[in-house]
TrEMBL record:
It is found in: Cytoplasm. One of its GO terms (cellular component) is cytoplasm. SMART domains: DeoC. GO terms for molecular function: fructose-bisphosphate aldolase activity. This is fructose-bisphosphate aldolase.
Length: 281
């Protein structure tokens, strides 16, 4: 039985990762997690069908979204690309002291009915509510794995003790700890923060013990080359690519950036050269 389940996990992971073991995944959960103001720069992208068609054309390897957006736009994700459905979230409208919890808003069955190739959940390692998210992740992972579906953990260390002890949630010792905790809790793919250098990110990759580690994109960079350099650093460190939202959808025409990211992630091209080749700069 186990062998068959592992085949399912591997085949489904293979819809995200190319032969080089890397992926560029488009993130589209911001309308819920940050609010629709994230789309104000290019308001047409508040319609998931519009932006998903654009990112598909440009060649992203997969897309991550919440279940309701998958009902609206899941069909626009081409069948040969990965569809990741995330089952936990929070709004930015919550009181501040409740922001350190992601709640479950859907179930493994929902994600499977919607055609998911992978199922994702966030754990804020170090949060006072870490226990709740650990249990949510365990329940989701246990059931998904039983059915042969890979599970992605957004392993985000954050909480008052982290700030007090390390000064920053991006301190590599903290990010490394989160990645390790994700691997030890059964994740098949990990999404986390940039640590500021390729050397320190390599430690995060090591700590994940073979589970692929992808960058969580972050706010839109003023200069796209700065963002490309971060992604280049992730790849140099042995990272498995990036999950990118704002740097893509906060551009009217995201195609040149996506094509440049593909050059950096899948062809190891230097950011500036790649950006010039795609007419981005
Ligand atoms: O993890 C998320 C939010 O993280 P946050 O609480 O803003 O640090 C997701 O909303 C995004 O999917 C993720 O941040 C990737 O999108 P970008 O950061 O590239 O916009």
């Amino acid at each position: 039985m186990d062998a068959y389940q592992n085949v399912g996990i591997k085949r489904r992971l293979g819809r995200f990762f190319r032969r080089d073991g890397r992926a560029l995944i488009f993130a589209m959960d911001h309308g819920f997690e940050h609010g629709p103001t994230d789309f104000e720069e290019h308001w047409e992208h508040v319609n998931p069908r519009v932006i998903i068609k654009k990112v598909m054309r440009a060649g992203v390897d997969g897309v991550m979204m919440l279940p309701g957006i998958a009902r609206i736009a899941g069909n626009d994700v081409r069948p040969d690309r990965g569809l990741m459905i995330k089952l936990t979230s929070k709004t930015n409208l919550r009181p501040k002291d409740a922001q350190l919890l992601q709640s479950q808003l859907g179930f493994v069955e929902d994600a499977i009915k919607l055609g998911a190739d992978a199922i994702a959940a966030t754990v804020y390692w170090g949060s006072p509510q870490e226990d709740v998210m650990m249990r949510q992740f365990a329940e989701i992972a246990s059931y998904a794995h039983d059915l042969g579906f890979p599970v992605v953990q957004f392993a985000y260390p954050r909480g008052p003790y982290i700030d007090e002890k390390y000064g920053s949630k991006e301190d590599y010792r903290v990010v490394m700890y989160g990645a390790r905790a994700a691997a030890e809790s059964g994740a098949d793919m990990i999404k986390t923060y940039w640590t500021g250098s390729s050397e320190t990110f390599a430690k995060v990759v090591d700590a994940a013990a073979g589970v692929p580690v992808l960058l969580s994109g972050g706010a839109k960079a003023e200069n796209p080359v700065d963002f490309l350099k971060v992604v280049y650093g992730v790849v140099e460190a042995g990272g498995a690519g990036a999950v990118v939202g704002r740097n893509i959808f906060q551009r009217e025409n995201p195609e040149p950036l996506i094509k440049t990211l593909i050059r950096v992630i899948h062809r190891n091209e230097e950011p500036e050269e790649a950006a010039k080749a795609e007419g981005l700069i």
